[in-house]
Design a protein that fits this description.
elongated, alpha/beta, glycoprotein
Length: 544
């Protein structure tokens, strides 16, 4: 199956995008620094749940954003009152309503007057709250103009997206009795999803590193045997194993990563709103996932069915294929197809994570960093790429391209498939904690390199580099989640924190132990060839 294996590697390298470690539902457009606080206009921007009841029966729930002005909104659902909803007349509430209200929540159009003007008019008419429907699908923060003074507003103001306003408007025009409940529940400081996502990322690198190191050690042992029995021209290259199944990254490919990944990211950003393009992504992910899952299962089963794993049959196009591969392929294909069909269901994330983890582990075993020099260039380029497309791209595209693509805003889907994700079970706002393949795979290549070096140099855990590289990665990812919570859930470039931890630890340890030159250039320890030792012994015997 070498053809499929190399195809999957090309696929994952071509679409290897690095996404923010987490994107939460209901992100708001404007930044806080564009809306400075002042007396009477100093509320924190919070998301607000608007639960509706139609003729006494619970109906749809919408999400809005609270204004900088007005009273704060209660955080607990039990403290929120069900209040009748009514339409403003005039609809934009830029002038006082024609009829008095008796504590209802009034819904108004955005119009052209100030938000505070609408709120003051609604309060004067007797409204208990005001819902302002935006003229776009996004949620905008309602702020006060610099020169405004009439800010003594004592009712809450909430902006709703356009589609929510259209739905509520139809309910009211149909003559239905509509009541609403406004509350803004607080997110937990730490969600259990982040803990499991951290364990998944660390565990994936752990598995991929051990598999890669085990393969390298097996290749070294095999070479030692051949060195004793064959001439040097018949020997395979050390540390690469079968050249058809192992790919070493070079300096050119490390630099080109930024260019290729950036181009593909822009293509995603421009085309992901088309259903056909998103379906192509799903198909490509399924192909890579099938190959990854198949490779992992065959490697595991081969330990129990060694004889069957060594039996091959020739298949057109694919060449020699083991019987184990033929046995597990139907299961892997069925698994991927079932996931593709039910990917938007409540349990779809489980299949996506299984396929993604299997693919990452397979790539970590196939793709290798030959030395620390290439690893430094690769992670350095990824570091710059990550920061640019999460933060700097906002100045060019007026939004973070990386976050928009990862969230799948323009696709109508719940994010792209090249992510590991877990639902935020204890978050009242729902959503997923996500981590991109690049946040695991790129530093994972360096961690796998460290374990291969340790095993070939016969270093124990404490004296080697793998343990410290693994700890550094775990700490870097942990700091990423801390930054996410400090930044109120806004997507963060995980490599901004992971690269300095992992690469910095490796470089400092190598310099301190005097191994940096070998790690930087050769990437493997000095080894004495067995046939050289035998020749030395024979010469000593002749001299004696």
């Amino acid at each position: 199956m070498d053809f499929l294996r190399i195809t999957s590697v090309i696929f994952i390298c071509g679409v290897l995008l690095k996404f923010p470690a987490k994107v939460t539902a209901g992100d708001i457009v404007h930044d806080d620094d564009l809306a400075p606080k002042k007396p009477g206009c100093e509320n924190d921007f919070v998301l607000v749940k608007v639960q509706t009841w139609i003729n006494g029966e619970e109906d749809a729930e919408f999400v809005g954003v609270g204004a900088r002005f007005g009273t704060t909104i209660v955080s607990k659902e039990k403290n929120a009152q069900q209040t009748p909803l009514t339409l403003s007349d005039p609809r934009d509430c830029c002038k006082p309503p024609r009829k008095k209200l008796s504590g209802e929540v009034v819904m108004v159009d955005r119009g052209h007057c100030k938000f505070t003007t609408k709120a003051n008019n609604a309060e004067a008419a007797g409204a208990s709250a005001i819902l302002i429907v935006n003229n776009q699908k996004e949620l905008y923060k309602m702020v006060c103009d610099p020169g405004e003074t009439d800010l003594d507003i004592h009712i809450p103001a909430v902006m709703l997206p356009q589609d929510a306003g259209i739905t509520l408007n139809k309910m009211l025009l149909n003559g239905s009795s509509v009541t609403v409940q406004l509350y803004s529940p607080k997110r937990p400081v730490v969600d259990i999803a982040e803990v499991f996502l951290w364990l998944m990322a660390v565990g994936t690198i752990l598995c991929g590193s051990y598999w890669s190191a085990w393969s390298a050690r097996e290749a070294a042992i095999e070479q030692d045997k051949l060195l004793k029995d064959a001439s040097e021209k018949e020997l395979p290259n050390f540390g690469t194993g079968d050249s058809s199944t192992v790919m070493d990254i070079n300096m050119i490919s490390a630099v080109l990563f930024v260019v290729v990944a950036s181009c593909f990211l822009i293509v995603l950003y421009k085309l992901m709103r088309f259903t056909w393009f998103f379906e192509i992504l799903v198909v490509l992910f399924c192909i890579g996932g099938v190959e990854g899952l198949q490779t992992c299962l065959v490697a595991l089963l081969a330990r129990w069915f060694k004889r069957t794993g060594q039996l091959y049959i020739k298949v057109p196009i694919f060449g020699a294929v083991s019987y184990l591969t033929l046995a597990v392929s139907p299961f892997c294909i069925t698994f991927a197809v079932v996931w593709a069909v039910y990917r938007n269901s409540s349990f779809g994330w489980i299949g996506q994570d299984i396929l993604g983890i299997a693919l990452i582990i397979t790539v970590l075993q196939i793709v290798r960093i030959p030395n620390l020099k290439v690893g430094s260039v690769l992670l350095g380029c990824a570091f710059i790429y990550d920061i640019f497309w999460v933060f700097a791209s906002q100045s060019l595209f007026h939004e973070s391209v990386m976050i928009v693509v990862a969230r799948g805003d323009k696709s109508g889907e719940d994010g792209i498939p090249m992510l590991l994700k877990i639902p935020r079970l204890f978050d009242p706002w729902g959503g997923y904690s996500i981590i991109g393949f690049g946040d695991i795979l790129l530093p994972g290549l360096l961690v796998a390199f460290s374990l291969r070096y340790d095993w070939l140099a016969k270093k124990n855990l404490r004296a080697g580099y793998f343990l410290w590289a693994m700890i550094a990665y775990g700490l870097g990812l942990l700091i990423t989640y801390v930054a996410l919570n400090l930044m109120d859930g806004h997507g963060q470039p995980a490599l901004l924190y992971i690269v300095p931890f992992t690469l910095g630890t490796f470089l400092m340890l190598g310099r301190k132990r005097g191994d940096l030159k070998i790690l930087w250039t050769k990437g493997e320890p000095e080894r004495v060839c067995p046939h050289v030792c035998l020749e030395s012994i024979e010469e000593s015997n002749r001299e004696g």
